[in-house]
Amino acid sequence: MQKLKIVPLITALTALRLTSCSTTTAEQYEATALTSYTWQVKYANDLTSQPQPRIETFANTSVLNRNGLKPAGAVVGPDDKGLWWPTVPPRLSVDEVEQRKKSQEEAGKPELIKDVQYKLTYGVGTLQKALPTNYDVYRQVVKAYPQRTPLELTLGVNDDSVEKVEPVSK
């Protein structure tokens, strides 16, 4: 009877091991932060009560930050997180907002969305791997990059993101 209880436990532990985090060391790496501004408008038959309004995106501008250095095309920055930003796209006209409105819908006010997407690219043998990451990892790489300090990367579940980096002592 005890054997029957152990089998699900072994199965669960095996599944956990297959999806758990792993580590790797990288000597070649690059951290990027894609900063962007996007105008968007919400549309719905009733904006106050409709839980999932339709969202239309309009003008967008972006700039790619690499390893904390000022990118070409950046006009604002660095901000309090060390990021550089593009110009704000032109504000939407009433005509542009109304053109995308369907019958019986009302349009919300245009909103300017500010967004950042972080990524870490690193060498694995002769291949390059690029994974999403977060602000803390980006900042650690920015600090390590000038000296090209090797980094230990802690990867997320199924190795599909970089959760943490630490300098490797030489």
The number of strands is 8
Structural class: alpha+beta
> How many H/I helices?
3
Q: Beta-sheet strand percentage?
A: 35-45%
Overall pLDDT metric: 90
| Helix content range | 10-25%
- Anisotropy-based shape: elongated
Major sheet description: 5 strands, antiparallel
Alpha-carbon distance between the termini?
53 Å
Radius of gyration: 23 Å
Which H/E pattern describes the elements? HEEEHEEEHEE
**Low-confidence parts:** 12-18
Key features of this structure:
alpha+beta; five-stranded antiparallel β-sheet; 20% helix; three-stranded antiparallel β-sheet; 39% strand; 170 residues
Describe the structure.
The protein is of the alpha+beta class and 170 residues long. The protein contains 3 helices and 8 strands. It has helices at residues 2-19, 94-99, 135-144; strands spanning 23-26, 29-44, 54-66, 106-107, 111-124, 127-132, 151-155, 162-167. Strands 2, 3, 4, 5 and 6 form a 5-stranded antiparallel β-sheet that branches. A 3-stranded antiparallel β-sheet has the order 1-7-8. β7 and β8 form a beta hairpin. The termini are far apart. Residues 12-18 have low confidence and may be disordered.
